[in-house]
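Hi L., both proteins are below.
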Amino acid sequence: MLFKGVVISLAVVPFLCLSAFPASGKPPMRYTVLFNDDIRHADENFYSNRLEAFFIKEINSRSAESVSLRVAPFVEVRHSVKRRKRERVSTGIELGLEWRDFFYLGQQFRQVWRSEPVFNRRVIKNTNMFETVSIVTLSRRLIPAKDILKGYISGEYTYDFRLGRGTRVESIAGLLIPLAKEAELNLDWRHRDRIHSDDCDTFELSAAYKF
């Protein structure tokens, strides 16, 4: 019953967003291709494809104190590089509050089919689970008055309702590089603390296109 309720909710939310965040035309969308290189466990390298839409409402549009609310439905598919198999499919919604393009506080709710192999890396668990991810990000332009390079640090905490406990705490540092008006390159390092399991360190490279 809980699983069916989650799926129905995630299907209905985008339509509720359309009425709560009225806008002319379609909402902005972003398609991202990502490659993750696990420094400690090469057999866990993966690449992913992610599609998301953005419903944004400005609370205060003054540039000095701009505040906006964000609702972003998404779907993401991950594939293992070594096993050449689809390992993880997730869909959900992220709610966020952004202040001055500097501070971001987000809460993600997602339903996951299949899970990354954690306890036995050669076996992919066929598991349905509902997760939440709490996100805090601080970002800053590294070259004053020029939007050509941005640095950021971020923290993420994942809670698995199936297990009834937190499963990951991630510390992230990265760079955002605009490639064009609609495209952006992201490079980051992250330490992933798998609670009660192996930790790992990864480098991620992704390219995103907005349309």
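That was the first. Here is the second:
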Amino acid sequence: MSNAPLDTIISLCKRRGFIIQSSEIYGGLGAVYDYGPLGVELKRNVRERWWHAMTRRHDNIEGLDAAILMHPTVWKASGHVDAFNDPLIDDKVSKARYRADQLIEEYIAGLRHKGQDARAETVHQRFVAALHEADPCAALHAIILEEQIRSPASGVCDWTEVRQFNLMFSTRLGAVGADANEIFLRPETAQGIFVNFNYVREVSRQAIPFGIAQIGKAFRNEIVARQFVFRMREFEQMELQYFLKPGTHMEAYERWRDERRQWHVDNGVRPERLRFHVHEKLAHYADAAVDIQYQFPIGWQEIEGIHSRTDFDLRNHAQYSGKKLEYFEPETKESYIPYVVETSAGLDRTILMLLCDAYREEQVEGEERVVLALHPRLAPITVGVFPLVKKEGMPELAHRIDQALREQYHSFYDDKGAVGRRYRRMDEVGTPFCVTVDGQSLADNTVTVRERDSMQQQRVAADQLPRFLDDQLRAWQPPA
């Protein structure tokens, strides 16, 4: 089975040390999560794989690590102060809060599930029109009332008006009191790239087109933060801003759209569970936008967005800062403000997708096996090393092999319980290879290597393990 409910994935994450709710001993903090020993390894591997794909494989993409706290005018120039809002609605009976647009989207999905496609399409068209109204809040509210959309909490249709809710967290910089200045925790990492555009271009001596990549934390005070790490208030983004000459941006937009989808496929995600979803309403900065969606247990949801941002960001930052953010093209003697194509992936959502996609329940010789068929390069543990029994010199040899492998891989030594149980523990956390030291190992220095997906075993000379594992990693193909 590979369509596990979200609760199953959450249970596995907590039980095996991937992810746990933050401050759990105090009852937890809503929509904030901590990564445990295995989760932090998986997260690091995904980060490094993204960084390698975006910077090491391209000679015109540079890295950046901008600060979380930025000058407050940054967010005025970017439009976040005025436009970074979600439509909030309250259930008067239960006092539960919802996003009005998500209530309508879920209602439309429910109609389609019941086979009422014609009605669903009518509501959908009204919904798209409402998003483009001068007063979208009133238009969304009218749909909710006219369709008698009920609250999931109370089951009744007794709503407040829809109102805009700004998602930015604010804090104070400087002395407490009147002298303190209000600033914001960044709601996205992109603006740190835009304000450093000239600096990065100059010090790296890059010419247009070129990109700036960044991985970092962002913060949003979500109205409805739920569905585990899919929607969090503190999360991590992996973003590229790719700067181009105006008029060449749509070709780059399409190229990055396809390249980013392929990256997820190369990580072992099943292609049939990925799709493109074109935005029905564009953000204020965009002239084209598409999401890469994954079919989660909770339905099709965004994992990455590709946006053509035009010159909105650089032009506005130039206006608000008074600094020129133009590029002079020596060949044509032309100056212009570059256009931007953005790829923005949620790191936490990517990890949740990988866990959901890799989860398998199988029957092996009458027993159930739970396995995470993760790409070996992403697995939190690459190789488990076991002595068959804790005697006759096997633990000593297994320890030596474990220490040697640690120079190149994340190796894990385990001598507790029967070997079959140790295999199962490694399968459940996605470990692609297990090495067992037995009696024959003491005689000829060979070991048994067991592969996770096929469960096949073969004898390998202990001193050839690094080369053997490298060959296996390169040749790996995702299981069906």
